[in-house]
Specification:
Pfam families: Fasciclin (PF02469). May be a cell surface adhesion protein. By secondary structure, the protein is an alpha+beta fold. It contains 11 helices and 7 strands. Helix 1 packs antiparallel against helix 11. It starts with a helix and ends with a helix. The site of one 2-acetamido-2-deoxy-beta-D-glucopyranose has 5 residues, from loops. The site of one 2-acetamido-2-deoxy-beta-D-glucopyranose has 6 residues, from helix 2.
Length: 280
């Protein structure tokens, strides 16, 4: 009896431990094994956003690497806080969900919107599919969609997802815009490549062009004949780069069972507790 009681208590203690571990959103813990996001974690703490994020139950953080966040890390604290709040999406989006989005563009609500300070949609983000890529920008009309989806760093469906993007999103009204960095040689640039410089830098036409450029057999959804740089150069290189990147992202996609393990472990423990109580 004494033994049974104590083993029941032990089970209960473990169960509680497991469930609180599996349940809580903790952005610091989610990224603690990723030193390339240490600056973002520091800045979230400095601007006192960490506890606000951790209180949420369903959240996606658009994460910036130490390099990428350099362009905003020195801004005044209040400005920085507003900008960072625009990188916290009040919904769950991981790679699977982003790729499954049917609409060409989706409006995402951010933490900044929840402050009530949002103006002209600057508390929202526009997530669009362009050039075979997923891009983010402020939802303010005319704002550039220059932050590219890179990978899903952490996912705990459907509570916390951390998605890496290529550069900060600074909505109009929240600070000076960040310049799009020049495209690195082998990875996909966030903007249409210089090769297609004949076209406008706006993402719209480039998107159509990508569909038009789709390889035969890929069954393009739309193939507008009006793609601006079609006549110039077919330029398959950037598209291939985009494809490679998506393929790479597919490869690193973690299995969705991570958090299920916690759940089923918990369920087994519940059974154990019930069973040992039933044994009295
Ligand atoms: C995870 O999110 C769901 C809703 O999406 C919520 O019902 C659940 O309570 C959350 N889990 C925790 C432990 O916060
Ligand atoms: C979140 O995780 C960090 C690192 O593991 C830990 O130091 C911190 O206490 C956790 N915060 C909460 C609220 O559990
Ligand atoms: C997102 O941006 C694109 C390109 O600027 C635009 O065509 C689209 O209407 C926007 N979507 C939303 C939901 O605002």
């Amino acid at each position: 009896m004494g033994l049974k009681a104590s083993s029941s208590l032990l089970c209960l203690a473990i169960l509680l431990g497991v469930s609180s571990l599996a349940s809580s959103v903790n952005i610091t813990r989610a990224l603690e094994n990723y030193p390339e996001f240490s600056t973002m974690i520091e800045l979230l703490a400095k601007t006192e956003l960490t506890p606000i994020i951790n209180k949420r139950q369903t959240i996606t953080v658009l994460a910036l690497s130490n390099d990428a966040i350099g362009s905003i890390s020195g801004r005044p604290e209040e400005e920085l806080k507003n900008i960072l709040m625009n990188h916290v999406v009040l919904d769950y989006y991981d790679e699977l969900k982003l790729k499954a989005l049917k609409d060409k563009s989706t409006l995402l609500t951010t933490l900044y919107q929840s402050t009530g300070l949002g103006q002209q949609q600057n508390g929202f983000l526009n997530c669009s599919k362009a050039n075979g890529k997923i891009v983010f920008g402020s939802a303010v009309k005319g704002a550039p969609l220059t932050a590219e989806y890179i990978t899903t760093v952490f996912r705990n469906p459907f509570n916390l997802s951390v998605v890496q993007i290529s550069m900060p999103i600074v909505a109009p009204g929240l600070g000076a815009p960040v310049k799009v960095p020049p495209p690195p040689p082998m990875t996909s640039p966030p903007a249409p490549s210089p090769k297609k410089a004949g076209a406008t830098p706006a993402p719209g036409p480039a998107e159509e062009e990508d569909y038009a450029d789709a390889p035969p057999g890929a069954a393009p959804e739309t193939a507008p004949a009006s793609a601006p740089s079609e006549d110039g150069s077919p330029a398959p290189a950037p598209e291939n780069a985009g494809k490679k990147k998506m393929a790479a992202a597919d490869e690193v996609e973690p299995p969705s069972s991570a958090s299920n393990t916690g759940l089923s472990f918990g369920a087994v423990l519940v059974l154990g507790v019930v069973a040992s109580f039933a044994g009295f």
